[in-house]
């Protein structure tokens, strides 16, 4: 027994770390609401299946309009976010830059959009800003780390002082990181397409707008057509998201759908006034303010509790799913058409918005946290699995010949485990942010209360709750960073 | 080639849109309480009708949620809106001076159905069905009058407790059509739904009435209404509000009325909805602590 | 002659790999002066502390030295031209530098071509540095050091990847173009041939510091034992 749990006494043991995370997830699972209440989902599922096989675009003009909006939102968003993120990355060694970047990305784009829609109406400006802000925070972080990881010898070879100017940056640092930055930007474009679809769910005129309607009203043929469109857009990125074409595409995007919003200073002033907490704005009596605070505290407490509960379960399940499915996209296990199939499967899975997966599981499993858990696990797991599989190609094949199962256990997992944990830690803050957001769809995480607050025009409450979700995200970010430093010094 | 033409049309429409936005345009919206394609079809007709009657450029813009409709109204992106009882109250609170001017004939005596899945084993009754305690329940949208406010009011009255205490699980489906779909699939055992949407869905054969049926009907209340901003006369010339009210009350086009479905529109004012406002306050949906 | 730098009772350390542990002692120097106009060769086995001493001198002489490190340290993604040009970033304004990155000016092109010619890399100027062989990369690094246009040269094994004849020719050029040079070399005959002073390092100490004329073959032998 003592040897079996011997790893618990080691410091810096990755097994110990994994064990505690798994234990925490099991504890959360015991506390979470995960009933299965199946009724008679057959009918709805049959309709969905039939719709999937008979995609149909009811209105081509509307379809094209939505495609153009989806593309222009994401293209404008990514280009602007890349510019801002790049600027931040250059100064990423400054603490305040890192803090601003972390704050920007701690708020989900859906929440940013809900705020900007209040200020600029349902407009291109609101949509583009909602993408630019969180994306620039994320890109600042990744660009910044990519610039930190480069070979510093060229810089030292031509410069004998610690501080270096703009010219040195462009000659001896940027070229070394540019390739990685480009790849990441391309990946971000994929995320942006997904985000702009999700923004459609709350009213911006992208594919998501019509997808939500189609799903809500059970027009699954129209929904599947939109879904296939989304997959096609994401898959085709590799052919047209090229530096050379961007010189044409970006100006075209700004020309076809100029960024504009409805700005009325009176509306903005009204919005600002509404953002002042009600007791101060309305000058309530102490007792009434107390009731308000209690009511707000209950929402923060319940929302944060459910958010963390769900996120911890999802984090561990995501890791498990990713580790297993990464073999589908790894040269150590598959090749040829099977590899392409696995690659495609994971790409499709990660491209499906969680909203959609959640809805399907809701029909099948009934209302509880389970649909959300499964939806987030599949989506996030596919992202990490795809990345990890691709990364495993760089590892030399195992020296000892063995069957796939023992190869997985004795070679694959041990060699990739550090990298795998690093990906999971990176994903942690994103999972928290998304869990909070998914509440908009009905599970009682913070998003549920945020959505309710917007529903009843309580912007003060909405902002406080958004801030609470940002704090959770920031906490996950800082714990992950600390764990990464302690357990994974190489990453 | 067709794609190219479509692209060119779109490019052209960008410019016409830019040119249009210079002169004031009368715009209205409606709360998205059901199938959007149907809403667009219905309100496109209304826009044409109003355009002719008012001699103005009238446009309908669809929105995705109840608060989006209220926000658009408050921000003067729309000057007129087809609100539900509660959203109308919220909107008129947000825009001082705005008025309810007309409601559907049926909206004077609106009602909500509680519907249940066969497996829940609930019987239809005239009395409030206390047996629903402990079941799972889905409302419609959080801000809906018929899908949330009134059913919640009667649930609280019957049990003297908040719904989440009474039921084993409470959800918000988003809209009436989805409430029906979720109860029909068995995801929830009981649902609260707008009677007009239900009757229409049954008539068109979208509902399997063997699987899901009405078990209780609320007493009647005032619901949907047209609400207009107080400053339309300043924006569109004196007498505009009166002309608009007349146009709505005189709407007799059969196909438009059937799409609502309403038999006609009758006058309304803000006081018509005082009861709704009181109810909302009593269950804590309007700022009152 | 002017004294450029003077070290006395100096313990030079090498940063430790693991955080928290003390740095290693790389070299102890009792006394060392460098005068303008000298051509100094640093001799000694690898690990004797040559690179550490050079790095220290570079820090003492900040801003006055052309620096040619042991590893070329080129930016593999950039063209050879830009790698050489990066030696002179401090001499030009940021605007000129950025312009040259996108659109190299004629003046700098001829300047660098003239510099590259005797090093035998003139026809490689528009290749990417990452695609060159080890010897070619070393010559690019040399060109970059030359283009720094500083009076003082600090070079660490600058011709280690070149053959003997080529190496000697290029080393001569290097010495000619700088008034003062300090070069770490592993080739003792070459050092004795071209330099006027030898500093020999062994076991983290200065073994001897003599004018070339006074260095006895036995001394050299003892150094590499």
Automatic annotation (TrEMBL), chain A:
The primary site where this protein sits is: membrane
Identify its membrane topology class: Multi-pass membrane protein
Q: Name one Pfam family in it.
A: BPD_transp_1
Compartments it resides in: Cell membrane
The alphabetical list of record keywords is:
Cell membrane, Membrane, Transmembrane, Transmembrane helix, Transport
Transmembrane annotation, as ranges: 66-90, 110-133, 223-241, 309-334, 355-388, 456-476
Q: Name the domain of life this protein comes from.
A: Bacteria
Q: Which residues form the ABC transmembrane type-1 domain?
A: 67-239
Entries under InterPro entries matching the protein: MetI-like, MetI-like_sf
Task: Read off the PROSITE patterns from this record.
Answer: ABC_TM1
Family statement:
Belongs to the binding-protein-dependent transport system permease family.
List the protein's name: ABC transporter permease
UniProtKB/TrEMBL annotation, chain B:
Q: Which domain of life, per UniProt?
A: Bacteria
* Range of residues in the leader sequence: 1-18
* InterPro entries (alphabetical): ABC_peri_PhnD-like (IPR030836), PhnD (IPR005770)
Q: Does the keyword DNA-binding apply?
A: no
Keyword annotations from UniProtKB, A to Z: Signal
Q: Does the keyword Signal apply?
A: yes
Regarding protein family, the annotation reads: Belongs to the phosphate/phosphite/phosphonate binding protein family.
Please state what the protein is called. Answer: Selenate ABC transporter substrate-binding protein
Organism, by scientific name, is Microbulbifer flavimaris
Automatic annotation (TrEMBL), chain C:
Q: Which UniProt keywords apply?
A: ATP-binding, Nucleotide-binding
Query: Keyword Nucleotide-binding: yes or no?
Result: yes
Q: Which GO terms describe its molecular function?
A: ATP binding
Gene3D superfamilies linked: P-loop containing nucleotide triphosphate hydrolases (3.40.50.300)
According to the UniProt entry, the coiled-coil residues are none
Superkingdom to which the source organism belongs? Bacteria
> Which residue ranges does the record assign to the ABC transporter domain?
5-223
Task: Report the InterPro entries cross-referenced here.
Answer: AAA+_ATPase (IPR003593), ABC_transporter-like_ATP-bd (IPR003439), ABC_transporter-like_CS (IPR017871), ABC_transpr_LolD-like (IPR015854), P-loop_NTPase (IPR027417)
Note the SUPFAM superfamilies from the entry. P-loop containing nucleoside triphosphate hydrolases (SSF52540)
Q: Tell me which PANTHER family the record gives.
A: ABC TRANSPORTER ABCH.1 (PTHR24220:SF86), IMPORT ATP-BINDING PROTEIN (PTHR24220)
What is the recorded name of this protein?
Answer: Phosphonate ABC transporter ATP-binding protein
Q: Which organism is it from?
A: Microbulbifer flavimaris
């Amino acid at each position: 027994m003592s040897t079996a749990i011997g790893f618990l006494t080691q410091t810096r043991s990755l097994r110990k770390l994994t064990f505690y995370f798994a234990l925490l997830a099991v504890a959360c699972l015991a506390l979470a609401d995960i009933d299965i209440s199946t009724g008679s989902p057959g009918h709805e599922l049959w309709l969905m299946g039939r719709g999937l096989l008979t995609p149909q675009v009811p209105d081509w003009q509307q379809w094209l309009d939505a495609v153009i909006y989806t593309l222009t939102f994401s293209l404008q968003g990514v280009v602007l976010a890349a510019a801002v993120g790049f600027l931040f990355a250059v100064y990423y060694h400054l603490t305040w830059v890192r803090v601003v970047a972390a704050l920007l990305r701690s708020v989900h784009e859906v929440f940013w959009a809900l705020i900007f829609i209040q200020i600029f109406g349902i407009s291109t400006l609101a949509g583009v800003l909602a993408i630019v802000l969180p994306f620039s925070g994320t890109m600042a972080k990744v660009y910044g780390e990519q610039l930190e990881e480069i070979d510093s010898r060229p810089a030292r070879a031509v410069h004998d002082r610690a501080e270096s100017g703009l010219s040195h940056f462009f000659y001896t640092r940027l070229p070394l990181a540019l390739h990685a930055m480009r790849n990441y930007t391309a990946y971000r474009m994929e995320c942006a397409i997904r985000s702009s679809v999700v923004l459609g769910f709350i009213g911006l005129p992208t594919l998501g707008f019509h997808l939500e309607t189609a799903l809500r009203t059970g027009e699954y043929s129209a929904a599947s057509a939109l879904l296939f469109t989304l997959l096609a857009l994401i898959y085709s990125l590799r052919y047209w998201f090229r530096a050379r074409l961007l010189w044409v595409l970006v100006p075209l995007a700004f020309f076809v759908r100029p960024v504009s919003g409805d700005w009325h200073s009176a509306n903005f002033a009204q919005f600002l006034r509404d953002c002042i907490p009600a007791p101060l704005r309305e000058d309530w009596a102490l007792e009434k303010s107390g009731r308000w605070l209690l009511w707000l505290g209950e929402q923060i407490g319940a929302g944060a509790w459910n958010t963390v509960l769900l996120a911890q379960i999802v984090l561990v399940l995501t890791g498990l799913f990713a580790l297993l499915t990464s073999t589908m996209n790894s040269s150590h296990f598959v090749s040829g058409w099977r590899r392409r199939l696995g690659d495609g499967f994971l790409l499709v899975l990660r491209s499906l918005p969680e909203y959609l997966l959640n809805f399907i599981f809701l029909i099948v499993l009934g209302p509880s946290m389970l649909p959300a858990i499964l939806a987030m696990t599949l989506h996030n797991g596919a992202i990490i699995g795809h990345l990890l599989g691709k990364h495993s190609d760089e590892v030399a094949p195992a020296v000892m010949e063995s069957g796939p199962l023992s190869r997985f256990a004795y070679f694959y997992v041990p060699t990739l485990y550090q990298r795998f944990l690093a990906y999971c830690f990176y994903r942690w803050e994103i999972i928290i942010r998304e869990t909070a957001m998914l509440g908009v769809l009905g599970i009682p995480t913070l998003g549920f209360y945020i959505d309710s607050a917007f529903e009843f025009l309580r912007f003060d409450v909405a902002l406080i709750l958004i801030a609470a979700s940002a704090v959770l995200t920031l906490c996950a970010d800082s714990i992950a960073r600390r764990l990464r430093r302690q357990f994974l010094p190489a990453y | 080639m067709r794609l190219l033409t479509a692209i060119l049309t779109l490019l052209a429409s960008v410019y016409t849109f830019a040119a249009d936005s210079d002169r004031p345009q009368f715009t209205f919206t409606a709360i998205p309480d059901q199938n959007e394609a149907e809403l667009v079809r219905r309100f496109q007709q209304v826009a044409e009708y109003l355009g002719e009657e008012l001699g103005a450029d009238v446009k309908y813009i669809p929105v995705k949620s109840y608060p989006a409709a209220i926000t658009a109204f408050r921000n003067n992106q729309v000057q007129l809106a087809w609100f539900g009882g509660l959203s109308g109250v919220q909107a008129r609170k947000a825009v001082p001076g705005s008025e309810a001017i007309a409601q559907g004939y049926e909206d004077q005596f609106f009602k909500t159905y509680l519907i249940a899945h066969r497996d829940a084993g609930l019987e239809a009754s005239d009395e409030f069905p206390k047996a629903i305690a402990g079941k799972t329940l889905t409302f419609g949208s959080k801000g809906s009058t018929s899908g949330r406010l009134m059913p919640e009011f009667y649930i609280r009255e019957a049990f003297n407790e908040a719904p989440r205490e009474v039921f084993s699980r409470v959800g918000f489906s988003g809209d009436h059509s989805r409430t029906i779909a979720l109860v029909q699939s068995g995801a929830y055992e009981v649902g609260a739904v707008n009677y007009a949407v239900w009757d229409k869905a049954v008539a068109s054969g979208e509902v399997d009435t063997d699987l899901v049926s009405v078990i209780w009907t609320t007493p009647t209340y005032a619901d949907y209404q047209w609400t207009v901003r107080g400053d339309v006369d300043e924006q569109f010339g004196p007498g505009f509000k009166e002309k608009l009210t007349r146009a709505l009350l005189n709407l007799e086009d059969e196909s438009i009325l059937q799409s609502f479905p309403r038999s006609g529109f009758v006058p309304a004012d803000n006081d018509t909805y005082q009861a709704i406002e009181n109810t909302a306050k009593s269950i804590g949906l309007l700022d009152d602590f | 002659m002017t004294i450029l730098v003077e070290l006395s009772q100096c313990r030079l350390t090498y940063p430790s790999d693991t955080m928290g542990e003390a740095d290693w002692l790389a070299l102890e120097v009792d006394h060392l002066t460098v005068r303008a106009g000298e051509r100094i060769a640093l001799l000694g086995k690898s690990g004797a502390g040559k690179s550490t001493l050079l790095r220290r001198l570079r820090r003492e002489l900040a801003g006055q030295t052309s620096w040619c490190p042991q590893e070329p340290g080129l930016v593999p993604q950039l063209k050879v031209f830009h790698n050489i040009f990066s030696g002179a970033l401090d001499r030009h304004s940021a605007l000129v530098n950025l312009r040259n990155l996108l659109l190299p000016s004629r003046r700098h092109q001829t300047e660098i071509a003239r510099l590259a010619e005797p090093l035998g890399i003139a026809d490689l100027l528009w290749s990417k540095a990452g695609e060159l062989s080890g010897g070619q990369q070393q010559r690019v690094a040399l060109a970059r050091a030359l283009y720094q246009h500083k009076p003082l040269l600090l070079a660490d094994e600058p011709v280690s990847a070149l053959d003997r004849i080529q190496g000697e020719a290029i080393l001569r050029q290097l010495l000619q173009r700088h008034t003062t040079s300090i070069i770490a070399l592993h080739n003792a005959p070459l050092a004795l041939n071209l330099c006027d002073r030898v500093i020999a390092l062994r076991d983290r100490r200065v073994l001897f510091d003599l004018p070339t004329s006074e260095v006895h073959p036995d001394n050299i032998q003892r150094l590499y034992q």
